[in-house]
Every structure is written in C-alpha cells, then in structure tokens.
Amino acid sequence: MELTFPVIDLSKLNGEERGTAMEMIKDACENWGFFELMNHGISHELMDTVERLTKEHYKKCMEQRFKEMVASKGLEALQSEINDLDWESTFFLRHLPESNISEIPNLEQDYIKVMKEFAVELEKLAEQLLDLLCENLGLEPGYLKKVFYGSKGPTFGTKVSNYPPCPKPDLIKGLRAHTDAGGIILLFQDDKVSGLQLLKDQQWIDVPPMKHSIVVNLGDQLEVITNGKYKSVMHRVIAQTDGTRMSIASFYNPGSDAVIYPAPDLLEKEGDKSQVYPKFVFEDYMKLYAGLKFQAKEPRFEAMKSMESTVNLGPIATV
C-alpha cells in the first residue's frame, strides 16, 4: 500500500472543514510524528527572502570552508562507510531566552533582520500548533506552552544547514538517523533538492519537498508529556550527488529548568495505566542526549527514569 505523507492545509481550521484538519493532525501525531503544513500564515515573500539570503550566505561564507574540511579529511575519495560524520554545513542561531544572532560571524545586517522576523513568525506558529495538540489531546489550552515555560520561558533556536553535492552518498549521510530531543520542530526546507526521510513501519519514507511549506515534527519531550501517545520519529538526510539542499530547522523546546513529565490529565483519561515515561529536568535530558544523539531514544528515557529516584524535583512552577 502506498503511504501518503500527511499534508495539512492550516487555513481549513477557520471553516467547516476544521474537524477533518484536526483529525489529520491527530493521525499524523499518532502515526507519523511528522506532517507538512500549507497555508500556515507565514508570508511567502518572507520565506523567499530567507531562502535567497541563506543561499547567498552559504556561497559567500560557508562553501569554501566546507570544501576545505572535505579535503582535509580526504572525503572525496571515500572507499568505506563513514558513521561518525555528517555531510552538512551548519550554523546555529538562538532566539530565546536571549538571542545570540549578533554574535554569529559574517552575518549581514539584512540577513539578521530577516531571520529575526522569520523567528517571530515561527514562534507564533509553534505556539499555535502546541495549542492544537492540546485540543486534540483533551488538555487545557496553553498546557504544553506552560510545561515548556520553566522560569525563563522556552528555548527557541534555528539550525541553518546546507547539504552540498556529495560524491559518495551511499557511504556518508547528510545527517545520520536520530530523533529530535526537544519539543516541536518547524522546518523550512529546499523545495527542489530532496533528501529528508523518516522511518515508518521499518521503511524509510521521503518527506516531499513542497514550495512554501513548513514541515513539522515532534521531539522526545512531546512523547514523554503524552506518555507515548505521540511519538518522536527517527529521521535522516540522504546526501545527493547534485544540488545543494537548504534546511532551516527551528526548535521550540522547553526552558532549561522546565520539568517534563507525562500530563496527569492524560494519565487519568487513559484509565489506570501506570506512568510509562520518566519525570526530569529538560537540561538533564539534553546533557544525556548530547552524547547519544544517534542512538535509540528508549535507553535515554530509561536513564532518566533511574535518575528520577535520586532527584527531588520540588514543586512544579506554574507560570
């Protein structure tokens, strides 16, 4: 059976097809961990500018460095598979709790301005999506945002990546398979060069490039909060022999001191199902994830569980 990747028209939430759109989001969260949004409210003109400036910045400031890295590691003449490196050129922007965008070298003023504007739009969209998830889960509006808040608000950042043409895509991945550690991830990806795949029912499935779409996927924290009802899903990037793929992934994550645990209301709804997932401080999970990113998530959850007994998390701060 041919699986159809879930594409959701967000403008339908405002009309009589709202129920169908919400059902599609629910199904995508439960069975895919990924979906693609059209008519998400972010202006196409802004997206086009972000894409143009990102590609210009890569050519001007990143491409040569990437070529030098490839030459220094002898990667053009690969003979055997490489598992400890990704064929990608990246830099990170942090927006919240405070921005580091002015500290990133070689960013032109117009690029900074546009990326800040784009981040504001993505943050709004992420919070809208979290509320749609609350609605589908039967949680009170604002619950997920509140859990993510901690004492300083959410952590929000963007990984700007380019995946240059690769001579040996069978021997090195653009990005090795992993699940995302954080909350909800919003991706603006190249609409011409593909490469992103997710794992569903033991098969790698392409996430289709579509113009002006935003691809959404769920991170490990939403799996914990929903006690496994929603899953974070393994995904990877396959390097391509021609064309450079642009990928701008923005991560709306809990604050570093946010306490993450299965939502009590959900556990109640599920009847007397004992809590499967651990309770932990987000920052502790991230420390563990840093060394284990490209491994299965289950041992990470187990490790947090064994730490749980030794941690007194104190009262939950509600903001």
TrEMBL record:
Pfam families (UniProt xref): 2OG-FeII_Oxy, DIOX_N
Instruction: Outline the extent of the Fe2OG dioxygenase domain.
Output: 154-254
- Superkingdom per UniProt: Eukaryota
User: Transmembrane stretches, by residue range?
Assistant: none
Keyword entries, A-Z: Iron, Metal-binding, Oxidoreductase
- Family, similarity comment: Belongs to the iron/ascorbate-dependent oxidoreductase family.
Q: What is this protein called?
A: Fe2OG dioxygenase domain-containing protein
What species does this protein belong to? Hibiscus sabdariffa
